[in-house]
Amino acid sequence: MGGTTDNEEAILYLMSQSMMIYLNPADDRIHIQINEFKEAIIYTLSGKEVLISKGKYIDLSAMSEGIYIMQLENKSGPRGS
Fold first, then answer.
1. Domain contains 76
2. What pTM value is reported for the model?
3. Max Cα-Cα span within the chain
4. Considering Cα of 43, then 41, then 19, then 22, what sign does the dihedral take?
C-alpha cells in the first residue's frame, strides 16, 4: 500500500482531532483513533467493498497497492469517509 519513510509519516485528521487515521500513506497496517469506534469499511474507488474491520488496528498487507476510500462508524453511526 505505498511506502513511507520516517520523514513521510503523516497523520490524517478527519473532521476533528478526535478522529484520526495513521500512518497515511500506509504500508502494512493503519491505526484508527475515534471515540466509541464500531467498524471501518474500506472500498475501492469504484465502490467495491474490500475489507470490514471492527479492530482499531487494520492489517493491510494482503491488499493491493492503490487508493481506497474508508468509511468509519462509531456507536452513533457513520462518521465520514
1. yes
2. 0.68
3. 36
4. negative
